[in-house]
Amino acid sequence: xxxxxxxxxxxxxxxxxxxxxxxxxxxxxxxxxxxxxxxxxxxxxxxxxxxxxxxxxxxxxxxxxxxxxxxxx
Length: 73
Fold this sequence. Notes:
Mean pLDDT: 87
Distance between the termini: 13 Å
Radius of gyration: 12 Å
Helix content: 40-55%
Structural class: mainly alpha
Oligomer: single chain
């Protein structure tokens, strides 16, 4: 697991760890958007438009998956 395990324990915490995602996510259609599959996700739109660095988004998704896996156990 990531070294962020102790600092980031929820998707909301994860959003805050990526300021550019946190800022843009305010415009997502759903308040609980995970930026992975939801319609109306402004973060995914920003990624496609080049507003968010793709490597940063990939890092976000990697940690998100770790959090989800950890939550299942």
